[in-house]
Design brief:
- With 340 residues, the chain is an alpha/beta fold.
- The protein has helices at 6-10, 36-42, 63-76, 89-101, 116-124, 136-150, 160-166, 168-177, 192-203, 220-223, 245-255, 264-278, 288-298; strands at residues 32-34, 49-53, 81-85, 104-110, 128-132, 153-154, 183-187, 209-215, 258-262, 307-311.
- 55% of the residues are buried.
């Protein structure tokens, strides 16, 4: 039995036909869970905060939503391969879906700046890896040029099919919650995801306020200009010049929302809180929207109503970050008494 993914579920809202070869790993339909301890911490009532766990997609991140459609359309259009630049999650997803489709996959990665969990996925799925001595934005420029010359399908978020696939997250939230949230919080890196969710909400006639959160060391949308050398522990959003800049600003302005920044310390505090208090292990970038909610609470500015925070990737994507929180470990002899 073939896995039923989001293309089959939402085909009436996606640019597919009977001729589209659907490449799927069963993505989508990720859980929406209540986060009552987060709600309590920010002064909202029980049920006031929900977490959309996108780390439970097949390759462990939200990228699978767009990649299933982007790779399906690439195959339909006769592409012999796919190509992308990535801080990690896109490369893992592109490699997996290309393997599923029987296509070559080439990924351009900023050297030394991709978390081990993500790099290992790209390697094991057979991607051809090009390390760029520079940042993500430089890697993306090279990937775009290579795609033109080679005729491969570029599957970064500049690919419109990626946005189309990712908008289904908004459909799911409305379906799972029974209504649209009043406020939608999410991390912002290349800004394709906030663009996609806003597109999805608009298509079904819902309009939550969109709150995007960047890392303070990689906050071009907040600063109003590109950041030449972005720096943050949240590698997934370490991007200095987002491709979807304008549409992200449009989502903010049209929804009456906000795009703000949070420090690495605030991100890591939220990362730990989610794991310790809610039992949810996400990668650091995914904790940015919760860090943003905490920041608004501290300033007495928590928006009223129900908030959904999109956690874009699983914690095992970036296992190295957990070394910052090493517990005290007691060693005892086998069979000995342990005082608890």
């Amino acid at each position: 039995m073939k896995p039923v993914g989001l293309i089959a579920r939402w085909k009436d809202r996606l640019p597919v036909t009977a001729k589209t070869p659907i490449v799927t790993l069963g993505e989508g339909n990720t859980p929406l869970v209540r986060a009552d301890r987060v709600a309590q911490a920010v002064g909202l009532p029980p049920g006031g905060v929900h977490l959309k766990l996108e780390g439970l997609n097949p390759t462990g991140s939200f990228k699978d939503r767009g990649m299933t459609l982007a790779v399906s359309k690439a195959k339909e259009q006769g592409a012999t391969g796919v190509l992308c630049a990535s801080t990690g999650n896109t490369s893992a997803s592109a490699a997996a879906y290309a393997a599923r489709a029987g296509l070559r996959c080439v990924v351009f990665l900023p050297a030394g700046k991709v978390a081990a969990g993500k790099l290992s996925q790209a390697v094991m799925h057979g991607a051809e890896i090009v390390e760029v001595t520079g940042n993500f934005d430089q890697a993306l420029a090279m990937a775009m040029e290579a795609a033109k010359k080679k005729g491969f399908a570029l599957v970064n978020s500049s690919n419109p099919f990626r946005i189309e696939g990712q908008k289904t997250g908004a459909f799911e939230i409305v379906e799972q919650l029974g209504r649209a949230p009043d406020n939608h919080f999410m991390p912002v890196g290349n800004a394709g995801n906030i663009t996609a969710y806003w597109k999805g909400y608009k298509e079904i006639g819902r309009a939550p306020r969109m709150f995007g959160w960047q890392a303070a060391g990689a906050a071009p949308l907040v600063l109003g200009h590109p950041v030449k050398n972005p720096q943050t522990v949240a590698t997934a959003i370490r991007i200095g010049n987002p491709v979807s800049w304008k549409t992200a600003i449009d989502a903010r302005d049209e929804s009456g929302g906000e795009i703000g920044k949070v420090t690495d310390a605030e991100i890591l505090a939220a990362y730990r809180f989610l794991a310790h208090e809610e039992g949810v292990f996400c990668e650091p970038a995914s904790a940015a929207p919760v860090a943003g909610l905490f920041k608004l609470a501290k300033a007495g500015r928590v928006p009223k109503g129900v908030a959904v925070c999109v956690l874009t990737g699983h914690g095992l994507k970036d296992p190295g970050t957990t070394e910052r929180f090493r517990p005290k470990i007691r060693r005892v002899k086998a069979g000995g008494a342990v005082r608890l």
